[in-house]
Amino acid sequence: MDSGKTRRGEVINIFYYFQKFSHLESIEYTIQYCCSSQIDFIWPLTLKHLKILFFTDRDYDSILHSLVPLSSLLNLEVYQNNISYSHPNGQVWENLLRSSLPLLKIFKLYLQFQCSTSLANHQEVVASFSTPFFIRERKWIIYHDIPYRYPHHFIILNSLPFAFEQYLTLRKPLENSLATVPEDYSKDVFTNLYDNIQTLKIKYQNAEIGENFSKPSVINLTIYVDFDVVPWLHVLTRIRHLDLYFTASLPISSPDETIGLILQNMSQLHSLHVTITQKNHSPIDMAWLEKQQTRFNHSNCMIVSGRDSYHFWL
Asked: CA-CA distance, 244 to 223, in Å (whole number)?
């Protein structure tokens, strides 16, 4: 697999390099926005897997055009890392997929764009991805989320299960959202939303918060809201990196007791970062760590403390 991450000034050399390897079957390519020059993407015709991360509307149009010759493509992933002012059109994608990518089996799409507050505009975008081609023939479901409302709706258009390896939850699951799922479709489509997610960041308190990060694929977890993690320690054994926030309103006995339980029970943990806004909590240092019933001590753990935060390197 070839992975590229280039700036625009390097693009010509990179695509020349691609052509030197005419038998390449897999490329992951990231476009970093630097200037206003147009890019003409020229991929090896032998590609079977292509993953592209891009920023601008101009890149989006160029990417669509560049896919036309790739008739051997089996797996396509397109991710937009910046908010666009253009609305995606499912009919454009359908025409492209029908005419140019007949062998495609896996289609992952993540697009961000601004939209007016009219629900009709949102429904129009969703409807364009709700044709029999997407829903019945290919069974590719698109999830249309609205995490921000002002000054304009900020829309996320995402394949199901969620395509990105990182996902930020801003609202309750399926709240303020639309999906291209017909009424007679199995609701099981929503049970595997997080199957591709490795890094989960939670910014909204809701009843399903624990269910979200209990998925086997999640290994990096950040919880920005008040949440008692102790009852969920039994499903956090796979987490390697954990980031927590403790505030005065969190109904737990003390942050240091919770941290001690985390270190005792999360055997795969590589790093722990906690931010504590509560006042007058017990000191958290190596002397404190030595008193905890964990496998960590001064020889295999380092604690770096700041004003309100503590980093544990395990």
From this structure: 5
Strand order in the sheet with 106-115: 2-7, 26-32, 49-54, 75-80, 106-115, 153-159, 142-148, 177-179
Amino acid occupying residue 143: Y
Phi, psi of 7 (to 5 degrees): -95, 165
Nearest to 85 by CA among 126, 56, 109, 52: 56
pLDDT at 92 over 90: yes
Measured from the Cβ of residue 107, the count of other Cβ atoms closer than 10 Å reads 19
- Give me the helix-helix angle, 90-100 and 119-128, nearest 10°: 10
At which residue do the structure tokens 């395509």 appear? Answer: 163
Residues 6+ apart with CB under 8 A from 314: 263, 269, 270, 271, 272, 296, 300, 301
pTM given for the model = 0.68
Instruction: Decide which of 168 and 101 is more confident.
Output: 101
> Distance (Å, rounded) from C-alpha 177 to C-alpha 158?
11
pLDDT at 246: 80
**Which residue do the tokens 């404190």 mark?**
288
CB distance 180 to 211 below 8 Å: no
* Residue 226: pLDDT over 90: no
Higher model confidence: residue 274 or residue 9? Answer: 274
* Statement: residue 208 has pLDDT above 60: no
At residue 76, the 3 state secondary structure works out as strand
The alpha-helical segments, DSSP class H, found in the chain are: 11-20, 57-66, 90-100, 119-128, 132, 209-213, 255-265, 286-291
Contact 19, 41 (CB under 8 A): no
Q: Please, which residues have CB within 8 angstroms of residue 149's CB and are 6 or more apart in sequence?
A: 117
pLDDT digit string, tens, across residues 227-284:
778 888 887 888 899 998 887 666 666 788 888 889 988 889 999 998 888 777 778 8
**At residue 42, what is the residue type?**
I
Q: Could you tell me if 104 and 76 are in contact, meaning their C-beta atoms sit under 8 angstroms apart?
A: yes
